Every structure is written in C-alpha cells, then in structure tokens.
Amino acid sequence: MLKIALCLLGILCNSTVWCMETPTAAVQTQILSLRPIATVINCFGMINISPAAMSHVTTPIPGQIVNILVQKAQHVNKDQHLLTLRPDPAVMQSYVQARNQEVLARQELVQQQQLLAAQLTTQNDVDRAQQNLKSAEVAVRTLKMQGADQSLITVNAPRSGLISLLNLVAGDHVDANTTLLGIGNEQKLQAIVQVDPEDAEKITAGMKVRLGDVFSVVQNLTGNVDLVEHQVDPRTRKVNVLVQLKQGSVLEGTAVRARITIASQDLLAVPHAAILQDNVGNFIYRVSNGHAHRVNVNIGHEENGWVAISGDLDPGQHIVVLGNYELQDGMAVKEEVLP
C-alpha cells in the first residue's frame, strides 16, 4: 500500500513540474539601428508642360474653323496639318481691293514715266508714283502671306511636340492673332501639386520630390520644387507648388501622387511589421536574455517600409519582427537574428 502511495505521489509531482514549465515562442529579430528617415508632405496634382516650353499657333487673320485634324495630347511632327480655316469674306475682299490698288498704281507709274519723257511732268511726280506702287505691292504681299488670297487655309505645325492646348471646335469663329492651339516640348514636363497652407510654409525651392500615378504605389518620377505660390486657391483652399520633373515617362494630364521631402535625419527605425497596437498604444517587443519585453513607443514617419520610433530603446538591441503577435511581456523566446 505504501509503495502504491509513493508511486502516485511521484506521478503527481512530475505532472506539477511539467505544468509549471514556461512556454517558449520562436521569433525572428533584427538589430535596432539608425536609418535615414525623410519627413515628407504627401499631396496630389497633375502633369502638364511648362509654359516656357510651349509654342502657340496663331492666326494673323479672322476666319472660321472648318476642320480640326488633331486632338489634345496627340504627338505631331513639324509641318503636319493641324486644322483648316476659312478667311472672313471681308479679308478676301481686302485682298481683291489691294490687288486693284496695285494695278492702278502700276498704271499710274507708267503714265507718269511717259509724261516725264514728254516733259509734261516732274521727276517728283514719277518718284511719288513709284512709292505708291511699292506700298501697294507690300500690301498685296502681306495679305497673301497671311492667306487672304486663299478660300481655305491649312495651318501646319511649326515644330514637333505634343498638342497641349486646344479649346476650339469646328465652326468656331476666331479673330486675328487668336491662339488656335499650343504645342509643347514633351521633354519639359512639370507637375502642379496642391498642399495645405500650413504645409506650404515648410516647402522651399529645390526640395526633392517623388511622384507616381495616383492609382499606383510606384513612384518612378523625380523632380524638384521650382516655385511655391504665395496665394490660396479659393476653389480648393490649397496652395499650388510647381515641380520640375527630371526623369520618367508620363503623359501630360496624368493625375499624380507626390511626396515632397522637407527634411531627412537618421532615426531609430523598425520594419512596419514589428509595431503592434492595443488600447494602451503602440509597442514593440525587445529580446534580452532569452525573453521578450514589451516597450511602448511613439511612431514617426515611414520610409520604404521602415518606421521611425522613439521610446526606451538603444541601437544594437534585438527587436522582434516576426512572431510578435503570440508574445506576452516576459515570455521566453527562441530567437533567430535576421541580417
């Protein structure tokens, strides 16, 4: 009977020891270090062509648009047909009158030359007739260069580029010297982004900017701040910031998301996955002597998946980046240190 009691006591003791063993969690850690973290302003905007790189096509005479042969954002080559214009009847009438004046001036000169040969007029009268003929010829030549002698004018591209300005439709009447369309240099793109007024005060010319399509997380465009406007757009209540692009392939009119870097400094940072949150706030787990210890942290800016943090931390400490969801403060861990 005593032997049975002793056996039962041994089994009970072994079971108690087994139940009191501390569970161990397998985790992966990384060594905490300083990383360059940028302070950025996120904003949105639109790509367009710099006005300085725009060529405006105008008409020297009034008329009516007959046909538009291109469309906005289309690439055109030099001398390519852009549109056709029918000159106003008054312009064509002016050309006819100028031609008649030229004919009369030429007849008058011949007559004066004949009278001078017969000594019936003076050289001054001949000189005056010659000057009148020159003026009539210039008037005809000018109107002809403007296309007044044609019933239909074809307007050609003065250079290769992108149609960036086109607000006309067939049937529109245009006055003399009206801008018909604009052709921009595709290599001179810029972005106009909008920021809150309080953020505009932090931005200066030369700051680096990364941009990308508003529907994509990839930011493959780079540029620099060129100008910060000193007025608030009454419609959006934001401030326009002009960004000159350096590289990248993008179409004019593309909506973009931009990140303006206003400062950069070396800060303690961890991968985003290392940060947990509960009703107390944000925290991470630090491993020391084979145990995980909770450290409450404040989080800052994020850069390429790394988040700046501050708290009771020092460089060189091991921070849990994988397996942290199953941890408790003080829990024993089996650690694998990642490079």
What does this structure look like?
With 339 residues, the protein is α+β, with helices and mostly antiparallel strands. The chain has four domains: 88 residues, conserved putative lor/sdh protein from methanococcus maripaludis s2 fold, CATH 2.40.420; 89 residues, Beta Barrel (Elongation Factor Tu (Ef-tu), domain 3); 62 residues, RNA polymerase II/Efflux pump adaptor protein, barrel-sandwich hybrid domain (OB fold (Dihydrolipoamide Acetyltransferase, E2P), Beta Barrel), CATH 2.40.50.100; 56 residues, Helix Hairpins (Orthogonal Bundle). It is built from four helices and 21 strands. The chain has a six-stranded antiparallel barrel with strand order 2-11-14-13-12-15. Strands 3-10-8-5 form a four-stranded antiparallel sheet, with no helix packed on it. A hairpin with a 7-residue loop joins strand 12 and strand 13. Helix 2 runs antiparallel to helix 3. The N terminus is likely disordered.
